[in-house]
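Regression test case RT-17, inverse folding.

Input:
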């Protein structure tokens, strides 16, 4: 602990230099090595009660508590400042989930805990996430954002059997499963999503933050708690009298497709077509060759305009809701080559594998953010980021092939050489001698 920083912070506080004192106390916390918890408590308390950066104080309070310091005082402070002002919303969420799940046919355990008996308390940290407190362990856990857009496991690794996932406590991942696994009626076989929760009390605790209202209407989920895992998979014909094999397989619709695998282009000649061919004929992908992004965007814009012009009165509303993403998916579903290997009986909705191509990739170094961090900027990537095609896909995964620098450079030179030959041919001359030498030298180097 730097005693000079602490002395300076105290002096500034005495002089009522609030903002400067907050900065000094923040420096004290940054330099803390954990050997002086009293100084940490003093610094965090000043920052918090002087209405400074509350998250800095919050983090310090949690650290001190987990290390066993000032636990009674800190728990009282955390409860009064963070938990109790927000507990009513959590109680309401819990009650709504209990009511919904209580009437849900595929949750077989209905013994919900009283709210006050839940083993985990969720202390709001910011507008997005929480810090959980585990009662039995008397400790705070790591920050949780239930809507963090991260898929941290491969849910679809085994498509021979119905999807089985353990302890899914992410709102984003639950919605991902709900959006991308097809209904059993649509694939003419048992295709529920089996969620196995290894501890009933823990599952109940998370019901105070998760939202199940939009996940249950289609009845895609089967909840298996603790030893109920032995029931997987359930014979719905025998147990519930539902024989899905009597249904007809339903064709994919553009509304179903929500996933995009963005095949990125790092360089002008990045070998994208090679990877497009590798993924072509995949049973769960809609694929196409690399296309010039600007040209595709214009075609989609023109097609939307024409569809709206031709639409009758009853179709006006549907046409108005048609997005650029919908147009791209419809284009792919209508192309035989894009659907060549598609499994129409698949358990999951296909994803779009798409490489928007640009004639050239240019990068500039720019300073971003308040700290002026050096960042690569590309107008091409900005056009993708702002594109309605990309913005209307709910789930986007990035696939980035890395081509060797020499190979990429050689491909660029080969393209330039071919262009030079064409230009010289149009003008009635011969290809430039220096370009021929450059072309040969590059390919000799690459061959080595």
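Golden output:
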């Amino acid at each position: 602990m730097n005693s000079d920083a602490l002395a300076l912070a105290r002096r500034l506080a005495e002089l009522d230099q609030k903002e400067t004192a907050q900065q000094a106390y923040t420096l004290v916390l940054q330099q803390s090595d954990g050997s002086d918890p009293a100084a940490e408590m003093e610094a965090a308390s000043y920052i918090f009660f002087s209405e400074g950066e509350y998250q800095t104080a919050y983090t310090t309070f949690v650290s001190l508590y987990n290390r066993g310091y000032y636990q009674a005082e800190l728990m009282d402070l955390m409860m009064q400042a963070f938990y109790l002002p927000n507990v009513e919303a959590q109680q309401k969420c819990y009650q709504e989930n209990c009511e919904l799940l209580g009437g849900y046919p595929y949750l077989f355990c209905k013994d919900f805990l009283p709210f006050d008996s839940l083993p985990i308390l969720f202390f709001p940290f910011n507008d997005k996430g929480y810090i959980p407190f585990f009662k039995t362990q008397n400790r705070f856990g790591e920050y949780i954002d239930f809507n963090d857009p991260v898929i941290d496991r491969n849910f679809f690794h085994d498509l021979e059997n119905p999807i089985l996932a353990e302890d899914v406590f992410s709102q984003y991942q639950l919605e991902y499963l709900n959006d991308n696994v097809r209904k059993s009626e649509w694939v003419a076989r048992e295709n529920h999503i089996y969620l196995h929760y290894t501890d009933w009390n823990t599952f109940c605790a998370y019901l105070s933050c998760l939202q199940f209202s939009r996940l249950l209407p289609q009845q895609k989920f089967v909840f298996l708690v603790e030893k109920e895992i032995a029931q997987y998979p359930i014979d719905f014909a025998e147990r519930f009298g539902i024989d899905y094999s009597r249904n007809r397989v339903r064709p994919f619709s553009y509304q179903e497709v929500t996933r995009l695998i963005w095949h990125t282009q790092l360089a002008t000649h990045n070998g994208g077509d090679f990877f497009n061919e590798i993924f072509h004929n995949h049973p769960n992908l809609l694929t196409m060759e690399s296309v010039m992004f600007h040209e595709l965007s214009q075609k989609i814009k023109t097609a939307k305009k024409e569809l709206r012009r031709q639409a009758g009165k009853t179709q006006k509303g549907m046409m108005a809701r048609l997005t650029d993403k919908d147009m791209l998916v419809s284009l792919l579903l209508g192309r035989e080559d894009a659907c060549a290997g598609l499994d129409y009986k698949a358990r999951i909705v296909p994803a779009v594998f798409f490489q928007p191509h640009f004639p050239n990739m240019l990068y500039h170094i720019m300073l971003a953010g308040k700290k002026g961090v050096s960042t690569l900027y590309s107008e091409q990537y900005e056009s993708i980021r702002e594109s309605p095609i990309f913005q209307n896909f709910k789930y986007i995964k990035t696939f980035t092939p890395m081509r060797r620098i020499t190979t990429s450079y050689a491909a660029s030179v080969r393209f330039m050489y071919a262009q030079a030959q064409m230009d010289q041919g149009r003008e009635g001359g011969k290809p430039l001698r220096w370009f021929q030498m450059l072309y040969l030298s590059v390919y000799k180097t690459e061959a080595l």
